[in-house]
Design goal:
Layout: H1 3-20, H2 24-39, H3 44-49, H4 62-74, H5 78-86, H6 91-94, H7 102-112, H8 117-125, H9 136-151, E1 157-158, H10 159-176, E2 183-185, H11 187-190, E3 195-196, E4 199-204, H12 209-216, E5 221-227, E6 231-236, E7 240-247, H13 252-260, H14 263-274, E8 278-281, E9 284-287, E10 292-294, H15 299-305, H16 321-326, E11 341-345, H17 356-365, E12 370-373, H18 388-402, E13 408-416, H19 427-430, E14 435-439, H20 448-459, E15 466-467, H21 485-495, E16 498-502, H22 512-521, E17 525-528, H23 540-549, H24 563-571, H25 577-581
Parallel strand pairs: 4-7, 11-12, 12-13, 13-14, 14-15, 15-16, 16-17
Antiparallel strand pairs: 1-3, 2-4, 5-6, 6-7, 8-9, 9-10
Helix pairs in contact: 1-2, 1-5, 13-15, 20-21, 21-22, 22-23
C-alpha cells in the first residue's frame, strides 16, 4: 500500500467522521494526516516494516500512528470500516461530484436512497432533490451542472500532477545514462498550460538506445507503445503517455522549438519564414532557393536565424507574440528571481501542517524580503480558524519570531467573505492587520449576480488588501464560481484592491486570460503560494509561469516591490494605492 492510498483512506475517514457528526478536531486531525502523508518522501509501508517511530512525523500522534500501522499491516482500518458500515452505502461516491459536501451527500443518500451519481442525477431530473429541505431548484441545477461538467472532462492532466512526473523521468534518465547532454520536457508542459495531454521529452546523446531502454524499464511504465531507434512512447502511472525523442546535438534547437509548439504559433512562424524564403521543420531551417538545411543547437540561434529574439515558451500561443517580437518590442517577462515576498501563508495555528517558526524559516531561506502570515478567520471552522483572541495572541508570537529574523513579517489573515459579502472579522479587527486576503470558501453555487456583488462588496472594505483565489476553482475537480470577471477586475482597479494569482498548482487562480485582462486594467496582481507546509512555497514557480503566460513584467506584480515601497503601498489608503503601484506615489 503506497502513501497515496493511505492518504486517500484518511481523507475519506475525515469525510465519514464529518458525516457522522464527530467533533471538529478529530476531522481536522484526519485531514492533516492525509495532507502530511501525501507529501512524505519516505514510504510508510517500509517505515512500518522497519519499525520506525511514526510519531516523529509532523502531525502524526499516537492515534494516527496506530491507524497507519493497522492499515499497512492488515489492509484495513477498523475505525474506517465501522464508520462506513453505519452510513448509507455509496455516500462517498456522491462526493465525487464537485459542490457536493458531506452534509449534502448524507441528505441525498438518506432521504432519496441515491447511492450513485446516476441515481442522484435521476432524482434531480425528477424534481425530488429540489424538494428536500434547504435545497431548492437553484442548488439542484448547480449540482446537475457539476455532474455534466464532470462527464465532459477531456482527460487532460493538471500541470501540478504532470510536471513532477516529467521532472522525475528526466532525473531518472540522466542518472541511468551519463551520455545524456540536453534533455527537457516540451509541448504544453513547457508552455506551462494549466493542463496537459501527453508529456513530450526531447534530448541529445551520442547513443540513443541506452536512453530509450532506460525509459522503457522505469518502474512507473505501465505499457510500451513504440520503441524505435530515435523515439519511444510509453504509458506511465497514472495513465499518462510519454513520448521521448533523442537527436544529435546540432538538431536540438529546431527539435525542441517544433515540439514545444503551440501548433498555432508554429503555423504563424512557418508563414513568417516562407515570406523570407525559408522553410521550417523539426530538423532545422531550409533555404528554399538552394535546398540547404541549416541546423541549430539551441532555440536562441533558431529564432535568431529568423531575425527574431527568443520568444518565451509561455507566450507561444499564436496570438500577438510574433508581431511583438518582429517589432523588437518583446518585454522582459517576470522571473522567479523577481519575487521578493509571499503574502498568503498558513501555519498550524489554523489548517497548516507546520509551525510559524518553520514557515518563516523556509521563506527567509529563499532570500525573500518579506512575508505575511495569513491563517484562516474564525468562520472557517473546519480549518481551525482563529478567533479574535487567538489572532491577537498570534500577533504577539509573530512579534517574538520577528526578533532576529532578516525578513519583515507582516501579520495578516485569510478572511472569509460571507454569503452576503460581509467579512468574517469586524472592521476594528481588520484594521489591526497588516495584510487582509479576502476569500470565498463557501456558498460556491451562488448565481453570477450574487457572487459578483459578494466579492465586489468585500473589495470596497478599506482594509482588504487582495482577493484570494478569486474564482475558487480546483483544477480537475471543481469548476470556477459563476461571476462576472470583467466586473470584478474593473472593481479591483476602481478600489485599489489587488487580485491574487494563487500559485498552488491545483488552483492557478487567476488563470492566464484573467491575468492578461487585469494587467490591461492596471489591477495590482499579487502572486502567492497559499502554503500550508514548508515544501509548498516551492509552488511560486507555477504562479510566476502563469503570470508570464499573461505577459506580466515585474512591475505588474505587487510582490516584486522592494520592502520600503511595498510598505508604502500598504500604508496608503485605498484607492490611492494605485499611484504607488504605478510608481507615481
Amino acid at each position: 500500500m503506497d502513501n497515496s492510498e493511505i492518504a486517500q483512506v484518511f481523507e475519506e475517514l475525515a469525510i465519514l467522521s464529518e458525516m457522522k457528526g464527530d467533533v471538529v478536531f478529530k476531522v481536522r486531525a484526519y485531514q492533516r494526516a492525509a495532507r502530511t502523508i501525501e507529501q512524505l518522501s519516505l514510504s510508510l509501508e517500509k517505515a512500518v516494516s522497519d519499525e520506525v517511530d511514526l510519531k516523529t512525523i509532523p502531525g502524526v500522534g499516537s492515534a494516527i500512528s496506530s491507524k497507519i500501522k493497522e492499515l499497512v499491516t492488515t489492509g484495513k482500518m477498523e475505525t474506517y470500516e465501522k464508520l462506513a458500515s453505519e452510513l448509507p452505502p455509496g455516500v462517498l461516491t456522491l462526493m465525487n461530484v464537485p459542490g457536493i459536501g458531506p452534509k449534502t451527500a448524507m441528505l441525498v443518500a438518506t432521504e432519496l436512497g441515491a447511492s450513485t451519481v446516476e441515481e442522484m442525477e435521476s432524482a434531480i431530473l425528477a424534481g425530488r432533490l429540489s424538494a428536500l429541505p434547504r435545497m431548492g431548484e437553484k442548488t439542484a441545477e448547480n449540482i446537475l451542472r457539476h455532474i455534466r461538467s464532470l462527464r465532459s472532462k477531456d482527460g487532460r492532466t493538471p500541470i501540478g500532477q504532470a510536471l513532477p512526473i516529467a521532472e522525475s523521468i528526466i532525473a531518472s534518465l540522466r542518472e541511468a545514462c551519463p551520455d545524456v547532454r540536453e534533455m527537457e520536457y516540451a509541448g504544453s508542459l513547457r508552455r506551462w498550460q494549466e493542463t496537459i495531454g501527453d508529456i513530450d521529452i526531447m534530448g541529445t546523446a551520442h547513443d540513443a538506445q541506452p536512453i530509450i531502454d532506460a525509459l522503457a524499464s522505469l518502474p512507473s511504465v505501465q505499457q510500451v507503445l513504440v520503441k524505435g531507434p530515435k523515439k519511444t512512447s510509453v504509458v506511465v502511472h497514472p495513465g499518462i503517455q510519454v513520448d521521448l525523442r533523442i537527436v544529435d546535438d546540432d538538431s536540438y534547437g529546431a527539435l525542441i522549438q517544433y515540439f514545444t509548439g503551440s501548433q498555432q504559433h508554429n503555423v504563424r512562424l512557418r508563414e513568417y519564414a516562407v515570406q523570407r524564403g525559408l522553410s521550417l521543420n523539426e530538423y532545422g531551417i531550409t533555404v528554399l532557393e538552394t535546398g540547404t538545411l541549416e541546423k541549430f543547437a539551441d532555440e536562441t540561434s533558431f529564432y535568431g536565424r529568423l531575425d527574431l529574439p527568443l520568444i518565451p515558451p509561455e507566450v507561444r500561443e499564436g496570438m500577438w507574440e510574433l508581431d511583438i517580437a518582429s517589432r523588437g518590442d518583446m518585454p522582459y517577462l517576470l522571473e522567479l528571481s523577481d519575487i521578493r515576498g509571499d503574502l498568503h501563508v498558513h501555519s498550524n495555528w489554523s489548517d497548516g501542517r507546520d509551525s510559524i517558526e518553520d514557515m518563516v524559516g523556509t521563506l527567509a531561506a529563499k532570500g525573500y524580503q518579506y512575508m505575511a502570515l495569513t491563517d484562516h478567520s474564525a468562520g472557517l471552522g473546519v480549518a481551525n480558524g482563529l478567533s479574535i483572541e487567538r489572532l491577537r495572541q498570534q500577533r504577539t508570537v509573530l512579534d517574538t519570531v520577528q526578533q532576529g529574523c532578516p525578513m519583515k513579517l507582516f501579520h495578516g489573515s485569510e478572511v472569509d467573505i460571507r454569503a452576503d459579502g460581509s467579512l468574517d472579522y469586524p472592521d476594528d479587527m481588520l484594521a489591526e492587520l497588516d495584510v487582509v486576503i479576502a476569500s470565498v470558501h463557501s456558498g460556491l453555487g451562488q448565481s453570477s449576480e450574487k457572487m459578483t456583488a459578494r466579492i465586489i462588496n468585500a473589495m470596497h472594505n478599506p482594509h482588504v488588501t487582495a482577493i484570494g483565489h478569486p474564482t475558487g476553482r480546483l483544477l480537475g475537480t471543481r469548476d470556477a464560481v459563476e461571476a462576472d470577471m470583467e466586473a470584478l477586475l474593473q472593481a479591483a482597479a476602481d478600489t485599489g484592491t489587488a487580485m491574487e494569482v494563487n500559485a498552488s498548482p491545483w488552483r492557478l487562480d487567476l488563470k492566464d486570460t484573467h491575468i492578461t485582462r487585469a494587467r490591461e486594467l492596471g489591477v495590482p496582481l499579487i502572486i502567492n503560494t497559499d502554503s500550508h507546509a514548508t515544501e509548498e512555497p516551492e509552488a511560486m514557480r507555477f504562479g510566476v509561469a502563469i503570470a508570464r503566460r499573461g505577459w506580466c513584467e515585474p512591475h505588474h506584480v505587487l510582490n516584486t516591490m522592494p520592502l520600503e515601497r511595498f510598505q508604502a503601498f500598504l500604508s496608503t489608503p485605498k484607492p490611492q494605492r494605485l499611484r504607488v503601484f504605478a510608481g507615481l506615489g
